[in-house]
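Q: Can I see a sequence and its folded structure?
A: Here is a first one.
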Amino acid sequence: MRTTSAAARHLGWLLIAASLALHFITVVAFARQPDSLAAYTVMPIWVWGGVGLFLCGSAYLFLRAPLSMVMTAVWALTLLLGADEARVIANIGKPAPRPGRPALVDGQRPIRVITFNSAHFQYGDPCEDLARWDPDIVILQECPGYRVKAIADRLYGGKGDYRSFALNGVATRWEINREVRNPDRRFHYFNHNVTVQLPDTRTIEVVNLHLSSAATDLRLWQPACWQKHHENRRQRRIEMAVALRILEDTAAFPGAQPVILAGDFNAPPGDPVQRQLDRDFQDAFLASGTGWGNTFHRRIPILRLDQIHATRHFTPVRCRAVTTRASDHRFVVADLLLE
């Protein structure tokens, strides 16, 4: 019996040590986000947290000692501070967008923006789902040009405007007076900029992004998997840099021009590609989002790939992700006040 007890204690300590090591790796990987660990951070932090908590729970069964509970508390705190899903806790109590025209805020009607990856219409026609929200601007990915036109006609009764380029499209109830296309043909996906003219003569620059698809190889025991994720992240970082450079060259950005930048980033908010936006943009969901904001996959959304960012000219007042059967993505609705 003593041998069994000693073995159980040793196993318990081993599990706690494994949980501690995993915690150290996880904190370093997600805090620093080195490209060499992109294969590790492609999954949400709570996936690794779940493994760590499982190790702590198993250790408690074998080692009835406070240390296993301490590690459980450490993991819980780490997930609370590090998980993207937990960062909107401060928004509890804020109103969510509702279908129909957006409600006034301080006597002013916000601009309602939707970003949506339509998945080439393989799941059906999203027009009715989009029309329920009465958006002012719809930013579309994986949507051919004739579909963009059909959405604009359905939403605005033939009185709106639209532009499309390389399966990206923008539809709006207002006039589009300029279009800029990414001339760099090295990339499979292209960003697409349009200038929207508001009724009061002000203009908004709208940037539609669809960055390269994320690597999905999770065979972490193979060196090729790590290299694939490393190159995949590097590609999206370059694409984002190109998009921002085009914006700077064509729209007196940053500073003078209000900009809405949205689309399918194919990367969660903690990815380094988003850090290029931190200086000039704010994430509408982090600022005002409510509910479960993850957008992919529609049935079991574990990643917030679809996002709306806006410059400081805007105040995000409401934001949420909305489920639709017409895509494998959920779409994002944001109400933005233009100062």
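Q: Show me another, different protein.
A: A second, unrelated one:
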Amino acid sequence: MSRLKIALVYGGTSREREISIKSGKAVEKALRKLGYEYMVFDPIDGKEFIDKIYQYNPDLVFLALHGKGGEDGTIQGVLEFLGIPYTGSDHVTSAITMDKVLTKIVLKHFGIKTPDWRVFHSQQEALACYPVLPVVVKAPSEGSSIGVYVVSNREEYVQAVNKAFRFDEKVLVEEYIKGRELTVSIIDGRIFDIVEIKVLEGFYDFNNKYVAGQTVYECPAAIYKDLYSEIQSIGLKTYRALNCRGPARVDIILSEEGVPYVLEINTIPGMTERSLLPKAVAQSGIDFNQLVEIIINNSLKGE
């Protein structure tokens, strides 16, 4: 029976609140089985959250937050100021990786292939552009594919731009790469098997991520050995370029020509029964409870 005191944080104020709660409850079940002393905190009320977690004085905060206010460095900065250790990447890395534009700038600097892109800071500016279609229009600071639209004609482009600006103050218009959707899971530098995401209809948007029966997952992905290793290496290079720590997941498109392109990196991967990180580590014989224990132990060692 562990005597460590864990503060489990989930919920929050983002559009991904319900997914965060699902992740948090799965982690909570594991903490209970593993025998940890823990308490659940929901940062939906910022000041109350800070007061309560400071009074609780945990040995570690396990973050199961997704989206703005949880995955973007906000909570991480607060915990660093309070001197409380937590799982996952620090506030700087979290802020950069939450913003797909900043992430792509870092990727380009390190020579990591990512689809070409343009950024627009107003609807007028974006609508004055006539990109070569198809393209992907993204609200760059949202997660779970919220505010992401694949468009193939001008009418769809105009609608997507208008919708994306409801989510964010800037919009990312990205080259569309047709290919296979892959993800590489990493925990403190350890690379796990690649998961291929096969969507029955459309692309891997919010609905296909969280509605049962809409997506098939293959792990390990059926890719020939040398390319498989190359994709894993690209995932690790991305992880290191962005100075990640703890668990992370790198999303990649493998083009029809066999070229891997990094789309983004998630620094607090989902921990639900449908999430990709648990699927990947399970292939290495690590069950969900062991995954939670690994994350905790590595965080406390400062790895």
